[in-house]
Amino acid sequence: MNDKPLAIMWFRQDLRVADNPALCAACDSNLPVVPIYILDDCNAGQHAMGAASRWWLHQSLSSLAGELDGKLQFFCGDARETLAKLCENLNVTDIFWNRCYEPWRRQRDTEIEEALEEAGINVVTSNGSLLFEPPAVTKVDDTPYKVFTPFYRASYLDQTAPPREPLRRSLPDSFAEAPHSRDLEALDLMPDQPWYQSIAASWTPGEAAAHERLDAFLEDGIDGYRDGRDRPDLDSVSRLSPRLHFGELSPNQVWHAAGQRSSVARLEKDVDHFRRELGWREFSYSLLYHWPDLPVANLQSKFDRFPWRKSSKDLARWQQGVTGYPMVDAGMRELWHTGYMHNRVRMIVGSFLVKNLLLHWHHGEAWFWDTLVDADLANNSASWQWIAGCGADAAPFFRIFNAVTQGRKFDPDGSYVRRYVPELAKLPTNTIHAPWEAPADVLKTAGVSLGDNYPAPIVDLKASRERALAAFKSLS
Ligand code: FAD
After folding, report:
1. Of 104, 308, 423, 436, which residue is the catalytic one?
2. Is pTM, for the whole model, over 0.85?
3. β-strand 90-98 against 33-39: which pairing, if any?
4. Which of 17, 27, 161, 254 is buried deepest, with most CB atoms within 10 A?
């Protein structure tokens, strides 16, 4: 055992050095600090990270290791055992981490905290991922909110107690090391197949790139965000979701940086709306915290009797973006190629899966979990339940998005579809969202042969809508 007292800083969903409350606390301990990361798939069970997230994590850890002068120590396996071994081999007196909210992590962390405290180690945990933690935002009778608007009003709009400002603290000159740590490569996060190359071409993970993106968005993108955020053909959203998920940025940094743009009067409404979206993220975390079964069980139990269809063939066509509905196919291909999908399109493809195809929302949740670089247990589960109509503050089931009218409204000149469904690129705008309506000569000129180089629609929108409504009615 090394005699020198040491502190451990355990990085988790907070892969940054700036505004990191646990790292600040570790540095304030005035002990030499060993920064570690543990890939714990043992405890994650069915919620182990998906493939696209693993790619992101590898890149983001590599960037963080660079920020820490290569001193970030990597471990793989059950975090309980890893920490116990580290404490056996080193004279660890203090351990610091930022809290996580996934049910499996909460359970594991409680056990770890108890074991460490029993061993006489000082455990300090902080809030590094949320503006306000779920127990802090409840109704007057202490029960959790089920509806977004009152939840958001309760804390987030309170000018007297705004979210805390980002912390400022410089790092120590050097970090300590631990025995038996592994290389980042040993975590085996990178895919064997090169499918990730187009994702890699779309993103630069890491804290520095996250700040560049935030600055660029606040400089240009936020102007017109309120309306533009629904337009997948425009560059009007922040694309900060993987940054927030992995903690390359804290929500406090984003909230306050956005707030500074409110000084430009014309941007005030855009900033308010953007902050409201950060509020939706918080709401999802609150739902997950109070309803830990959110990822697996319908919040409205009457949906347990819902007559879902089973069709692996239809599911595969949805996943591959060959449904014959251009807006759906563009979204699913955007997801596959970039690891991201615009929010409006997530709603369109989600509604199409659960309502037009009548396939269980679990299938959509699982596919998104594997393919999104921002896959997030709280946001993904809450959003799928919202789409399926079975969640807390859900869109009513009978709100069925029409993939054609949504496309015409939110991708009015078809440029989003043209980008991701190139075989339709030459179709005129008036038929790009419904190629089957185009006259034969128009299809021919555009080089589109339905059922040949682009599929005919997999279902009829009107008939499948009626089928969905009848299925819903059967619940009452
Ligand atoms: P912006 O519009 O720039 O918003 C800023 C931030 O606010 C986002 O980065 C995100 O953290 C948060 N946010 C925005 N919209 C929402 C929302 N509706 N719910 C919760 N938080 C929101 N988001 C994820 O981060 N991970 C997921 O796994 C995920 N799965 C989803 C599944 C479905 C079916 C749907 C409909 C939505 C899902 N979302 C998920 C929410 C939303 O689509 C993304 O957060 C958003 O598209 C990210 O893009 P952005 O960063 O450009 O968002």
Report:
1. 308
2. yes
3. unpaired
4. 254
**CA separation for the pair 320, 336 (Å, rounded):** 8
Over the stretch 239-269, which tens digit does the pLDDT of each residue have? 999 999 999 999 999 999 999 998 888 999 9
- Neighbouring residues of 84: CB distance < 8 A, sequence distance ≥ 6: 115
Q: Is the pLDDT of residue 7 over 60?
A: yes
Q: Are 317 and 455 in contact (CB under 8 A)?
A: yes
Amino acid identity of residue 406, one-letter, is Q
Residue 146 neighbours by CB under 8 Å, 6+ apart: 392, 393
Instruction: Tell me the three state secondary structure of residue 11.
Output: strand
Per-residue model confidence as pLDDT tens digits over 435-462 = 999 999 999 999 999 999 999 999 999 9
pLDDT at 396: 86
Nearest to 204 by CA among 41, 329, 360, 66: 66
Is-contact 225 218, C-beta < 8 A? Answer: no
Residues near ligand 1 with C-beta < 6 Å? Answer: 229, 237-241, 244-245, 277-278, 280-281, 284, 343, 346-347, 350, 368, 372, 374-376, 379-380, 383-384, 387
- Structure token digits, residue 278: 């950060």
The Å distance, Cα 343 to ligand 1 centre, comes to 6
Distance CA 292, CA 287 (A): 8
Q: How far apart are CA 38 and CA 12, in angstroms?
A: 8
